[in-house]
Amino acid sequence: MSQEFRNILANNVKKLREKESLKREELSLLLGFDNSYISKLEKCRINITIDKLTIIANYFGVSIKDLFED
User: Fold this and answer.
1) Inter-axis angle of helices 50-60 and 24-31, nearest 10
2) Phi and psi at residue 18, in whole multiples of 5°?
3) What is this structure's pTM?
4) Where are the beta strands (DSSP E) in the chain?
5) pLDDT bracket for residue 69 (50, 70, 90)
6) Which of 6, 34, 51, 63 is deepest in the core (most CB within 10 A)?
């Protein structure tokens, strides 16, 4: 995944999380991820799998495509 797409994904997840007034750790745990996963995602420090993208998209009621739109 290119850095541009990583940045877009990170920003979109952050916006969705903040809209729900959730802390990074809270969202990680709600999704069944390691407690620092969302923090790492928002800082572009991990490679995300399609399975985890699907979980995030489903939680927020958006499509995976939406997570990558600027």
Assistant:
1) 110
2) -65, -35
3) 0.93
4) none
5) very high
6) 6
Query: Per-residue pLDDT tens for 3-60?
Result: 999 999 999 999 999 999 999 999 999 999 999 999 999 999 999 999 999 999 999 9
Q: How far is CA 47 from the centre of its chain?
A: 11
Q: Measured on CA atoms in the order 14, 16, 19, 21, is the torsion positive or negative?
A: negative
Predicted local distance difference test score (pLDDT) of residue 1? 73
Task: List the Cα angle 68/10/33 in 5-degree steps.
Answer: 105
